[in-house]
Amino acid sequence: MKISACVLLLVSVAVFSGLTAVSQGGEPSVAQGKDASPSDIAASSQDISRWVEQLDSDQFDQRERAQAKLTAAGSPAMPEIAAAARTASLESSTRAINILLTWSEGNDRRLAVAALEQLASMKNRPIESARAAEVLAEVRELAALEAVVSLGGSYQVNPQLRGVISFVPTVNYQIIIGSKWRGGLESLQLLESIPHTAVVSFYAPPLDDDALDCLQNLPQLGRVELYGTRFSKEAIEELPRKLPNVKEIDIRPSAAFLGIRGDGGQNAHVVDVVPDSAAAKGGIRKEDVITHIAGKEVKDFAALTAMISQYQPGETVELTIVRRGGDQELQTMELPVTLAQWGPTSNDTLPELRKMNLERR
C-alpha cells in the first residue's frame, strides 16, 4: 500500500537538525528516553545498523538507548526498522514496531505516512496492521491539506452547506484554489487524497477547463464555487451532468468579495460582518441595511450578491446604507468600499490525528 507520488513529493519534508553533539562513546548523542523526536540526531548507515543489532542486546539499558536513537534518527532508519519489524527476533521486532508506532503519531506527516504504510503491510502483526490501515487514509488526508496550502491554496474546516443536514458528527473541508495557486493542473490530484472535501472553490485561479476534472472523484462533494474563472461556458454547462450528486454550483463572473452575511429576507440586511474584510474596512456594521450600490437599488441579499459580482477585486463602489442610530432614528449614509477578492487563508487548525491506541510492549 503506497501513497501517491504526488502527495509524497509535495508534502513538506522535515528539516533535519545540523551539527549534533558527540558523546564520549563516539556516537551521536540523543535525549534519553523512548520519546526522542525524529531528526534530533544525524546518523550514518553504520550507526543505524549497529543500533538495530543492539535492539536485541543482552543489556536492557543498551536496548533502550538503541531504540531511542533509532526513533530520533527518523526517515533514514526506515528501511532497517521495517525489515527488523518483519523478520527479527521477538525482542527486536517488538521494539521496531514500537518505533514505527511512535513515528506514526508524530508531527512529521511524511514520516507518519511512511510508518503507517509499513505497519499496514505487516502480515506478522495483524492487530497493528489493521489499525494502521484505518489511520493511514486520515494521515494522507492531512498531508494533502498541508500540501495544498504549500502550493498557494487554502482550506476551511466544516463549511456550512445550505439545505444539507447531517446527524453524524464528521469533519469536512472546503478546498480553495485561488489566484495564488502555483501547483498547476497536476497538483489538483491532491484532492483525491482529501475524501472529506465538501466544497471546492475556484476563485480566479490560473487554470483552464481541464481543472474541473479533479471534481469527479470526491465522494462527499456537495458544492462547487466558480468565481471569476476562465473556464469555458461549455465546460461549466457540463458540470451538472458530470457531478450529479453536487447540490449547488455557484457561478459568478468575478471573485469580488464584500464580506458580509445576510438573512435571506426581503432586503439586504447585514447580520454579520467578516472581520478585516472589505465591508469592515469600509465602515459597514452589523444590522445595517444596504439599499443601493452605485445608485442602483438593492432589493435583497441575492440581488446584492449578483451586483457585487459585476465588479472586480480592487474596484471601489459606493454603498448606500440605512443604519439605526443611538436614538433609534434611521440614518442614511454613503460609504465608499474597496472590494477584496474571495480566497481566505487557512486559519483553521487541522484536526488532531487519531492515535493508534495500541499498547507498547
Automatic annotation (TrEMBL):
EC numbers on record: 3.4.21.107
Enzyme class of the recorded protein, top EC level: hydrolase
Classification via PROSITE patterns: PDZ
Signal sequence interval, chain numbering: 1-17
Keyword RNA-binding: no
Pfam families referenced in this protein's UniProt entry, alphabetically: PDZ_2 (PF13180)
PDZ domain ranges (all copies): 248-325
GO MF annotation: an example: peptidase activity
Keyword Glycoprotein set for record: no
GO biological process: proteolysis
Keyword tags: Hydrolase, Protease, Signal
Protein name listed in UniProt: Periplasmic pH-dependent serine endoprotease DegQ
Organism: Bythopirellula goksoeyrii
Gene, per the UniProt record: degQ_2
